[in-house]
């Protein structure tokens, strides 16, 4: 049985992962002041970062409607879909709506939409897991069961080098945020089981925050030898490679991969941000 993987563009991918697992991406959209960005392979990320730096407004993101999902579903007999957490975006709801529209007309087709309860490399690792299960030639129901178990157990951790977008978005009070910036306090954040974001810890300075982030892998993770660690970064390759080296020394991950943030993840992470998922 042949399967297709579809993701939204908050799923950060390398060319190699995309080609290996034949993954198609449905783009989200970003508006900053009067500039409109489509989060696809033609996105100029440096231009996006420059627009973010020069704006006092919160970047506005918009999920794709059901039509782009539907266009892909119609091409394949069996489709697995991975989206942003439905607590963070309407991408999941629109992917499900497209599925319902499709099945009204084509009852012989199959679509399964997974809510990642995550974002960025969290989505990547779910798509990666599904791809490996397809490669193992498992059946449809077994892939679903194993993927859902993976999602339930997956951990997402991240460190933001800049608090600008948190402050602009009202997720952190301006005075509190500026005070934290003045003291060089860096938050260590985590995804929750409900698909929201929580403060896990904090540290003074980026180096200490990254060290604490690596410590947290061992504190929250289990059965690491069976897992792949995904690291996404926004213009922070040196930082991502340091995390990879230290994680490889301290933990027994089956593999460790590094990806760059695409547009939506760049908005969330901002320059210097790193996100881990496993």
From TrEMBL:
Domain of life according to the entry: Bacteria
Which UniProt keywords are given for this protein, alphabetically ordered?
A: Lipid-binding
Specify whether Plastid is a keyword of the entry: no
Q: Where is the signal peptide?
A: none
Q: Does the keyword ATP-binding apply?
A: no
Which GO molecular function terms does the record list?
Answer: lipid binding
Which Pfam family would be a valid example here?
Answer: DegV
The entry's protein name is: DegV family protein
Q: What species was this sequence derived from?
A: Petrotoga mobilis (strain DSM 10674 / SJ95)
